[in-house]
Design brief:
33% helix, four-stranded antiparallel beta sheet, 353 residues, seven-stranded mixed barrel, alpha+beta
C-alpha cells in the first residue's frame, strides 16, 4: 500500500467524521473509528519510517507523543468522571490530534505546501538604487540585476483554486494579492538560484495572513481588496484595488487580447523567471522555498494607471515611488503553481561568490 493510499484512507474517514458532526452524536461515535484508523496508519508509518524525510519523521513522533498524552488523560478522566474533562479528553483533544494527523498524511508524499493558479499578473517594474534594499537582503543572497539595473516590482494578481497541503478552505480559494518585491540570487552547488524577496504582500483574508506570517515569516497584511476585468473588442483591462485606512489604492493595466511568448534574455524574462522565495529571519538565518511553474506568456500593455499612497502602504523607504514612473509594465498570463515547503538556511550553509 502506497503512502498516498494511506492518506486517501485517512482523508475519507476524517471528512466523514466532520460531516457526521453535523449530527453531534454520530460524529462523536464515528470519531472512535477515525481514531482507530489513524492509529493503524500511524503504526504503518512507523514501520515504514525509512521512506519519510527527517522533518516528517519528527512530525510523526509528535503525533505519537500527543496520542500517548491523550490516552493517559482519558484514563484520568474515567477515574474522576468530570463532564468538562470528559468532553475535552474524549472528543476535543482527539479531534485536534486527528486534524494534525490529517495534515501530516496530506503532506507525506509531497513537499508542496501550496498549490494554486496565479492569473493575470500585472507587474509594474521600477529601477531602484540597490542601497535602499540592503537592510532587506536575506543572509546568503545578493541583489540580482538585469543589464546592471536593480529592480523592484509592484505585482497584482489573482489566486485561484488555492489548496494548502492539499485542502481547499472555504472562502479562501479565490482571492487577490498585491505585493512589492525585489530580486536576489544565491549560489549553490555550482549554479545560481534566482529568487524574490517580498517587502509586503497584501491579501483580503486574515487567515492567509496568519498562516503565511506564522509558518513562513513573510510580511503579509490584510486589507479590503477588489478586482475587475473589463473586456472590450480589442483590449482587456485588469484592475486591482486595496483599501488602506480610508483610501482606495488602484493599479490598472489595459492590454491587447492575444498572449505572446516572453523573449529569452528580455527584461520580461528577468522579471518573471525567478523560481525561489527568500525571507530574512535575522542576520544569520534565511528561509528558502521553491515556486514551480511553467514559462509564462505575456499580453502587450497599451495603457496603465497607478493611484497608490506609497508612504502609507510601504513606508518611508519606498515613498519615492510616489513620483517615480515605472521602467516597464507587463501583464503575464500566469499558470498553475506549486510552492514547496520552506527550508531554513543557517549562516554556515550559505555560500556566495
Amino acid at each position: 500500500m502506497t503512502l498516498s493510499t494511506l492518506h486517501k484512507i485517512n482523508k475519507i474517514f476524517y471528512f466523514t467524521t466532520l460531516a457526521l458532526y453535523l449530527f453531534v452524536y454520530f460524529g462523536m461515535m464515528f470519531q472512535i473509528i477515525l481514531g482507530i484508523v489513524q492509529v493503524i496508519i500511524g503504526f504503518t508509518l512507523l514501520i515504514r519510517r525509512d521512506e519519510l524525510s527527517k522533518t516528517k519523521k519528527t512530525k510523526l513522533i509528535i503525533y505519537w507523543i500527543l496520542v500517548i498524552m491523550v490516552f493517559f488523560l482519558i484514563l484520568i478522566s474515567l477515574k474522576f468522571q468530570y463532564v468538562i474533562s470528559n468532553l475535552l479528553f474524549f472528543f476535543v483533544f482527539p479531534m485536534a490530534i486527528a486534524t494534525y494527523f490529517y495534515f501530516l498524511t496530506a503532506n507525506i508524499t509531497s513537499d508542496s505546501f501550496l498549490k494554486a493558479e496565479w492569473e493575470n499578473l500585472a507587474l509594474f517594474n521600477y529601477e531602484i538604487d540597490a542601497k535602499i534594499l540592503e537592510k532587506y537582503i536575506p543572509a546568503g543572497t545578493e541583489i540580482d540585476t538585469w543589464n546592471n539595473k536593480c529592480y523592484a516590482s509592484l505585482v497584482g494578481f489573482m489566486f485561484k483554486n488555492t489548496k494548502v497541503i492539499g485542502v481547499k478552505f472555504p472562502f479562501h480559494i479565490n482571492f487577490e494579492e498585491v505585493n512589492l518585491r525585489f530580486y536576489v540570487k544565491r549560489f549553490e552547488n555550482g549554479e545560481w538560484k534566482r529568487g524574490v524577496v517580498f517587502i509586503k504582500e497584501i491579501v483580503p483574508k486574515k487567515a492567509i495572513t496568519l498562516i503565511a506570517n506564522t509558518l513562513y515569516q513573510e510580511h503579509y497584511e490584510t486589507q479590503q481588496m477588489d478586482h475587475e476585468i473589463i473586456e472590450k473588442k480589442n483590449t482587456s483591462t485588469f484592475i486591482y484595488e486595496w483599501k488602506n485606512a480610508d483610501k482606495w489604492n488602484t493599479i490598472q493595466v489595459e492590454t491587447k487580447k492575444n498572449p505572446t511568448e516572453i523573449e529569452p534574455d528580455s527584461e520580461a524574462e528577468f522579471i518573471t523567471e525567478h523560481y525561489f522565495g527568500y525571507t530574512k529571519i535575522d542576520k544569520d538565518t534565511t528561509f528558502e522555498y521553491e515556486v514551480q511553474h511553467p514559462r509564462w506568456e505575456q499580453y502587450e500593455v497599451v495603457n496603465h494607471q497607478i493611484d497608490i499612497d506609497f508612504l502609507k502602504t510601504y513606508g518611508l523607504d519606498f515613498e519615492f515611488l510616489q513620483t517615480t514612473q515605472p521602467t516597464s509594465v507587463f501583464l503575464a498570463k500566469g499558470s498553475e503553481i506549486k510552492v514547496k515547503n520552506k527550508q531554513k538556511l543557517k549562516l554556515s550553509e550559505l555560500v556566495t561568490i
